[in-house]
Amino acid sequence: MALALNADGKEDEAEGAHMPTRLTLRALTGELRGQQFTFTAPGQFALGRSSGCAVRLAGSASVSRRHCLIELDDHGAWAVDLGSLNGTFVTGQLVGRWSPGRGDDSTLRETCRHPLHDGDELRVCNHVFAVVLSEVATPSPEAEASANAALPGRPR
């Protein structure tokens, strides 16, 4: 059961399927142009040059090893810059804000989560991705039990 707000603005249990978030990044520019990367909640997915990143941007020296993180849960999606030198942008807005560093170090940045919305553009250096958010219906336990009962070889 999912929670919804009733007419009084109070939480109410709603009938129906649980709806986790699915995020697809469609590469519009850069070496990955034309490729799509799809992730389902919950999870955290890094973009960067490192081989350990979910979306590897290996051909660009201006991209940090672990440049940014996409956080995905049942409530939405967020972009988090991981302290990259060149920044992460969502629809033209810099993710995180510059904070004064110690001494002459002005590269320190306060990290903050920036919400991602369907139709946003995520830019990591010269790599631009279209953000596509959708909901994935997960069958209710009753529907799953019914579907399992209909499988051949299963006791009825």
General description of the model:
This protein has a domain at 40-134: Tumour Suppressor Smad4 (Sandwich), CATH 2.60.200.20. Residues 1-18 have low confidence and may be disordered. The protein has one helix and 15 strands. It has 156 residues and is mainly β. The chain has a six-stranded antiparallel β-sheet with strand order 4-3-15-14-9-10, with no helix packed on it. Helices cover 6% and strands 42% of the residues.
Give the overall pLDDT as a whole number. Answer: 80
Under CATH, the topology of the domain at 40-134 is which? Tumour Suppressor Smad4
DSSP summary, beta strand count: 15
- Under CATH at level 1, the class of the domain at 40-134 stands as Mainly Beta
Number of helices: 1
How is this structure best summarized?
With 156 residues, the protein is mainly beta. The chain has one helix and 15 strands; from the N terminus they run βββββββββββββββα. The chain is 6% helix and 42% strand.
